[in-house]
C-alpha cells in the first residue's frame, strides 16, 4: 500500500519539496493508524474461553463428591469426599450430628485428617470415655477410592477401642438419606428391623451406636454380657461383618434346636446360643 502511494506521487506535477513533505506526512499517518484489531480480539476471546472452560471444569471436578464417610456415635454425620480425597461437605443427620458438624472445621482437609479431628473432638472423646461405640462406614461409586479411604481410616483409628470401620453398598445411600439417617446408622437400623419389623428409623435416629448394639444382642436372645467385643476392641472389614451375621444366625438355630429336645438337651441349646454370641460379638465387625 505504501509503495502504491509513493508511485502515485511520482506522477503528480508538483515541486520536489512539496512531494517530499507530502510523502513524509502520509508515512506518519500510516504509521500512527491502528492496525485491524480482529486478530487480537479473536485471540483474546479464545484465551478467555479456554480459561473459563478450565475454571468451570476444574470447579466441577473438585466440588463433585465421589465418596462418603459416615461417622456415627450418637452424633451422626457424613463427610462428602471428592476424587482428590478432600472433604468438600459435612452433613449432620441428627441434632447432635448437626451440632458437631458446626463445631469442627474440616472442609477442604484430607479425609484422614478430618476423621482424626472429629474423633479427637471433645464431643466424641467424651462419648468414647463412657464406652460408647463409633462406627465409620465408607461408601462410594469408585471401588478403588473406597478401598483407599477405608485403608486410610483403618490406619487412622488403629488401636482405638470401640471404633469399627467397614465399607458398604453405595446403592442404599439415597434410601438412608430419605429416612433422615446417615448411611452407617441406616445399616444398623436394617439389622434391627430384620429382628423387629415394627422398629422405625425415628426409633433409632437419636440412639447411640452402643445402644443399638445392645438392642441387637437383646433381640438376638443374647445376654448383655455375651459377645464382649461388641463394645470392646474395634474391628475392621465388611466381609467379616457378613461372616459374623451368618455365624449369629447359625448359633440361634442351634439354640432353638437344643431347646426343642427337652430338659435332657438343654445343654445343647445353651451351646447353640453360645455360638450365636460368638458370631455377634467376635466377628460382626471383624478385621
Protein model, in words:
- With 287 residues, this protein is an alpha+beta fold.
- The protein has a domain at 64-219.
- Helices cover 58% and strands 11% of the residues.
- The protein is built from 13 helices and five strands.
- The protein has helices spanning 2-10, 16-32, 38-62, 95-103, 111-119, 122-129, 143-157, 173-178, 183-195, 201-204, 209-219, 238-260, 266-283; strands spanning 65-72, 76-82, 87-92, 134-140, 163-167.
- A five-stranded mixed beta sheet has the order 3-2-1-4-5, with helices on both faces.
- Strand 4 (134-140), helix 7 (143-157) and strand 5 (163-167) form a beta-alpha-beta unit.
- Helix 9 (183-195) packs parallel to helix 11.
- The chain starts with a helix and ends with a helix.
- Residues 225-233 and 235-287 have low confidence and may be disordered.
User: Helical stretch count?
Assistant: 13
Q: What is the gyration radius calculated from CA atoms?
A: 35 Å
Helix content: 55-70%
Instruction: Give the end-to-end Cα distance, rounded to a whole number of Å.
Output: 84 Å
Name a few traits of the molecule:
about 290 residues; alpha+beta; five-stranded mixed sheet; 13 helices; elongated; disordered C terminus
Amino acid at each position: 500500500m505504501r509503495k502504491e502511494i509513493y508511485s502515485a506521487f511520482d506522477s503528480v506535477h508538483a515541486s520536489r519539496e512539496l512531494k517530499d513533505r507530502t510523502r513524509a506526512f502520509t508515512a506518519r499517518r500510516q504509521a500512527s493508524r491502528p492496525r485491524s484489531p480482529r486478530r487480537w480480539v479473536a485471540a483474546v476471546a479464545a484465551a478467555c474461553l479456554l480459561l473459563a472452560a478450565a475454571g468451570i471444569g476444574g470447579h466441577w471436578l473438585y466440588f463433585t463428591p465421589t465418596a462418603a464417610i459416615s461417622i456415627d456415635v450418637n452424633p451422626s454425620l457424613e463427610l462428602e469426599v471428592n476424587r482428590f480425597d478432600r472433604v468438600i461437605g459435612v452433613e449432620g443427620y441428627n441434632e447432635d450430628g448437626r451440632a458437631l458438624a458446626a463445631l469442627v472445621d474440616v472442609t477442604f482437609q484430607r479425609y484422614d485428617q478430618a476423621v482424626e479431628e472429629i474423633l479427637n473432638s471433645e464431643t466424641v472423646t467424651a462419648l468414647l470415655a463412657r464406652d460408647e461405640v463409633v462406627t465409620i462406614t465408607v461408601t462410594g461409586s469408585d471401588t478403588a477410592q473406597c478401598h483407599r479411604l477405608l485403608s486410610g481410616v483403618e490406619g487412622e483409628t488403629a488401636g482405638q477401642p470401640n471404633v469399627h470401620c467397614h465399607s458398604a453398598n453405595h446403592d442404599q445411600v439415597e434410601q438412608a438419606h430419605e429416612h433422615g439417617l446417615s448411611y452407617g446408622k441406616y445399616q444398623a437400623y436394617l439389622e434391627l428391623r430384620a429382628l423387629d419389623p415394627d422398629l422405625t428409623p425415628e426409633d433409632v435416629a437419636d440412639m447411640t451406636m452402643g445402644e443399638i448394639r445392645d438392642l441387637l444382642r437383646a433381640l438376638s436372645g443374647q445376654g448383655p454380657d455375651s459377645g464382649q467385643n461388641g463394645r470392646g476392641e474395634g474391628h475392621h472389614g465388611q466381609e467379616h461383618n457378613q461372616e459374623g451375621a451368618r455365624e449369629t444366625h447359625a448359633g440361634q438355630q442351634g439354640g432353638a434346636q437344643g431347646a426343642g429336645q427337652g430338659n435332657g438337651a438343654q445343654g445343647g441349646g445353651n451351646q447353640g446360643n453360645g455360638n450365636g454370641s460368638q458370631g455377634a460379638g467376635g466377628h460382626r465387625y471383624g478385621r
